[in-house]
Amino acid sequence: MLVKPLTGLLALGALVSTSVLPIGEQAVLSNPSSNSLHDHKANAFTRPTWFESALLARRMLALSSSGVISTVFPDPIPPSSRTPASVAGLPIGLREYIADCDRALPDGLSFGDNGDPTILALRIATTFRNIGAGSNISLELDWWEHLEDAVPVYPGLPHSPAALPRITLFGYFDPLPSLSRHDAAALEKCFLRSHPDAKMWLPGASGAPHASFWARLVVTQAYWIGGFGDVQQIGWMNVTEWKGIRQWSSSVGDGRGWEDVRLPGEKQR
Predict the structure, then answer these.
(1) Could you count the other beta carbons within 10 Å of the beta carbon of residue 116?
(2) What share of the chain is helix, strand, coil (3-state, %, to 5)?
(3) For the domain bounded by 37-260, which CATH number is listed?
């Protein structure tokens, strides 16, 4: 089942404050020797280009293990449902497990590692029941949990979550077909690196508490808030750039991959 791209929902989520500096310098966002905000901004920041922002966004997807998926309750609510009739047609955002595992899919099924997140869907979950009833879908990712590791954007001011990145991905929900044992093992290996606990409810797992299936969000639009607007990009990304970026090199922009940038406060892996 394919669901049309979301047009009426925008799942809100988190801002970025990072200049795209060489690896090893990325976390140094303040200039202790500056005596004024003007000097600090002039010396410490280089506004990322939109391509550099896309690199940061693809890196955030690669490092994210969950995100908030927004859907809409059916209208009317089915009579057999325990959902209150008063929420019919209203949006709900719930955090779900995701991983950047498209490259683990077999040839002919993979879209070439072009930024379509893999989702482990539980049939009983509200998110996927809404999608099954025809809801559109968006996915919000953010970097807010790294606030304490990031350097404040402006000297003398406190840390601000609004200075860390967020992106909302729009697209359609694409359930994956049944996989061979070999292909399923490759996808499971990738997904379980981020979610070892999910071994208990993988598709077909013996004794699983709930039925599940593999799916992906096929991205058709991406809305990026790179951080405070005086030093970062905010707006709609070029989807061709989003889809053309790879880990080590890309077919778009200046050819860099998402390994060539670092997010604010990111620790060495």
Answers:
(1) 24
(2) 25, 20, 50
(3) 2.30.110.10
